Structures are given as C-alpha cells and as structure tokens.
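Justification of resources, computational component.

The compute hours requested in this renewal are based largely on the per-chain cost of generating structure records like the one below. Each record pairs the submitted sequence with a full structure-token output. That output is archived, and it is also reused by downstream analysis tasks.
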Amino acid sequence: MIETTRLTKRYGRARGIDDLSIRVNRGDIYGFIGSNGAGKSTTIRLLLGLIRPTAGSAKVLGLDIIKQKKEILAGVGYIPSEISYYPGMRGVDAARMAQRIRRVACEAEARRLADRLSLDMSRKVTDLSFGNKKKVAIVCALQHKPDLLILDEPTSGLDPLMQKAFWDIILERHRQGATIFLSSHVLSEIQQHCTRAAIIREGRLVVEDEVHALARTSAKRVTLRNVQGAMPEIRGARDLAQVGNTVSFLVQGEAMQLLEDLSHGSFDDLTITEPDMEEIFLHFYEKEEVRA
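The structure output for this chain reads:
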C-alpha cells in the first residue's frame, strides 16, 4: 500500500528526510514514530504529492507519488496534524466539498460519523474548538470509506472519550479491510493498536519491524519490592527510580549476571517485564546516538 525507496527531501541546507525506505503492507496498522521535527509530517506530505522529493521515489496504492498524485488523493483518507478551513465554512460544507472533489455521494456516512463523534456539523468551523475541528477532518477523511487512511497525529486535541470513539471507528474500518498509516506522539496508541512500526530520528529511519518484535529489545524492566538496605550495584542498569521501598530500573545484559548482582541485595519480591513503547523508543534512539 505504501513503499518508499531512498526517499529524500531537503529544504535548501535544512534537513527534511534522508534516504527513507519503508514498506506498509495491505492490512497493516502501521505506526510512524518520532520526536517533533523528526520528519513525520514531511514524509506524509511527500506520500500525498503535496511536496516533491529531492531524491528517491515512492508509491502509494501502487501509484507514483509524482505522476499519479490525483489518483492517490482520490483513494486515500487523510487527516492532517493541523486543521484549517475557509472562513465562514460549516462542518457540513467541508464534508460536501470533499464529496464533490472526490465525486462521491456519502452524506449518510458523514452524518453517521458526526453522530458517533458528537459533532454538530451545522456550526461554523471558525467557532469550533481545535478538538471539534479535528472531528470535522475525521469525517472528511473517512466518509468515502477509503482503502488507505493516512493519519498525522489524529487524536491530538481529542479528549479521552473522543479518542476512544475515534479508535473504535478506525478499528472497525480496519476489520473491513482498510490499511492504516498512523503518525503519533502517543506511544501507548502504537503499542496497543499497531501491527508494524517505524521509528524515525532526524529524518532517518532508525528501525522498522513488527511491534511485538520491537518490544524484544535486550532491555528489561526490573522491579524490586520492599528493598531493605542499600541497593547493590546492578551492571547495565539505567533509569533507576525509587518510590518508598520499591525500586525500578531498566537493565541490559545476561540474565545470570543480573541474578548474581541481585543476590547481593535484600528484597521481598521481583518482577521482570518487557519495556513499554516509550522505553522501546528511547532504547532505539539511544542506540542511534551511540552509532552517530
């Protein structure tokens, strides 16, 4: 559904993205992760043909992003991270304009989506909060039931209740066969919902894999409860935190080495778990910094 080959975008001397090669398969819920300025929105604008690459190539829905961008835009549902509409436009006007551009009649689906999101489409967009403007964008992107959804920070501005409603809709569309490409700062969303993910840093791909495979880093989260006395030295430990008599840290290294170090301490209980998505993200960023 999406394939980039050494895709590069530079703004004069400024960096956009560099040599990016990723692949999104049909049926994926694909997470695109990176800090602010990493190149996520630049990548999405390139995929939609809104800007031209400096080098490299990409296909979306099997179509070339330069030669066939109109066909791509017709077949994709896109939610931008920043929402903007014409002055005086109502939500229903925005939805109808999107329908006319795509030459599809889907007013009933637009009303159904608005009802699920508790959105009054008769109000002027300029009078809406950022969260409600985002809901208008969701309706415009999903109403024609596209095969591919490209979502740039789609839940920003939505309250927790609306975030749940949004994900209910997205997962429903996925069960119906849609492929999802999702840029997000909310790492828990990636871990909970995505099947595959890529991490991007300063415009370059750090890692791309299935989410469960990304979780199999060499780092583990260790929690000790009712620790007595001083903590023993744990080789490879980092991010140590202590609340009362409970101590938690990440550790890398051999299991037998960890057990040997822990044998010098006194505690009542021990748990060792996989790191969460934020810890995975930091783990790969730190590895990239070491290589740099």
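The longest strand covers residues 2-11. The chain has two domains: 2-214, 219-274.
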